[in-house]
Amino acid sequence: MISFVLFLSLLSLMTNNMIIWWSVFLMMTVVFIFLNKNVKSYSSLINYFVIQESLGLMFLLMNFGIFQFFIIMMKIGVAPLHFWIFSITNNIFSYNLMWFLTFQKLPFLLILVQIFWLSGLMLLFFGLMVCYLQMFSLKNYKNLLVLSSTESFNWIIMGVFMSLINSVYLFIYYMILMVMLINKFSKSSSNWLNWETILVFLNMPFSVTFFVKIFSLSEIFKFNTIVMLVMLMMMFLSALTFSYWLINMSVKFYDKNQM
């Protein structure tokens, strides 16, 4: 399946034909349904199929202006257009969740690069702020993990606007490490929180998202120094939101120890 997705990614990068791009969208939907049919998470599959195929039809019909840019961003689930991803991730686990957060996005990212809209950078900044504010209201560990992945992907796409080669390298690095991390988690919702998860997603130095963000910031610094200062302040907000995990982890085994 990974080889097939890499072939579709190469195909979408070699051509700018709308029909071929739409065919790639359809094949990626078929791949996702094929991978998840044994999990029997039918609600997630139906939601994913309806959303992706509706957006695919809109992509063909609204082939003018900047509409296609917004449609591709919504298909990937880029913040602030990520409202639909929680209806998919609530019923998928382990390898399937890893696939949804990494390989499923690869062909869409390469198509987005070819139709990118420079003013869309401000939309990505707004999406980051939405992610940080939404983290304050989420209590489910799995949803926090999915939202953190969405936020990191926003950083990668912002890097695409600045430097394509650096961003492709960052995306490959991000995919490999997410494959290693997410598969480690159990299907049980009680095991989503552990010290490894906290240290990885708290933007600790030399952790997964740390390198993604620091390289993206270095590219943004060439573009606008004021924006970089705002981004640093927002990264501090991210650390505050994940402090909720620290508090919960500190008292997780309190009753057990008392007994």
From TrEMBL:
TM spans (from-to): 18-35, 55-76, 82-101, 108-135, 155-181, 193-214, 226-247
UniProt keyword annotations, A-Z: Membrane, Mitochondrion, Transmembrane, Transmembrane helix
Protein name: NADH dehydrogenase subunit 2
Organism this protein belongs to: Pristionchus pacificus (Parasitic nematode worm)
Upper classification of the organism: Eukaryota, Metazoa, Ecdysozoa, Nematoda, Chromadorea
